[in-house]
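Teaching note: in complex prediction, the entire set of molecules is handled at once rather than each chain in isolation. The prompt given to students was simply: 'Predict the structure of this complex.' The entities are:
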Amino acid sequence: AQSVTQPDIHITVSEGASLELRCNYSYGATPYLFWYVQSPGQGLQLLLKYFSGDTLVQGIKGFEAEFKRSQSSFNLRKPSVHWSDAAEYFCAAFDRGSTLGRLYFGRGTQLTVWP
Amino acid sequence: DAGITQSPRHKVTETGTPVTLRCHQTENHRYMYWYRQDPGHGLRLIHYSYGVKDTDKGEVSDGYSVSRSKTEDFLLTLESATSSQTSVYFCATERGLAGGTQETQYFGPGTRLLVL
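The expected output is the structure of the full assembly:
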């Protein structure tokens, strides 16, 4: 079955430290891949997406993600975390083989930032 | 963002009552989706629409129905609300490219529903 896995339920980092959030997908072909962020009480905001081409994609708020086909991964990174980055992060994948849009979401990673 | 609004933003209701949630978009996006978000489950697809009057079930559709009579509106109805339907409900839209290729989904602010 198609799935998206975020192995870390909760991550805590200090402000200014680097960050990497993990995401793995299971599909036969390369899916479209997304990272969304959700602040408390808010909807989901798109951070970045990968459809094809350069495997390192840049997003908003200083985030980037790297697609690695050999590892079926799409990890999100930020070199220096700010307190305002505290939120929940969701990885999602869309199977290119399906005829109608359907995103598969991971269960999310909650990020806490210590001052 | 796709100019998505959801109403109501918060609702408390009793078990057994029908509830309708509304999603409205102003971008003329073809595809619309309803998700529910529960702790530890991420977002799960309830129903989606690929055009006016064209809808289909997602992975957690039992107890829910939808309607789309206009491009801009997508209604989610809980036919007889149960406590297990207490959740946060998100609407999403997607432009839909020529040839049916999908791209980015944009999300509304959510509706918090409590079923007592």
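Point out the following to students. Chain B has a mean pLDDT of 91. The CA atoms of residues 47 and 57 of chain B lie 5 Å apart.
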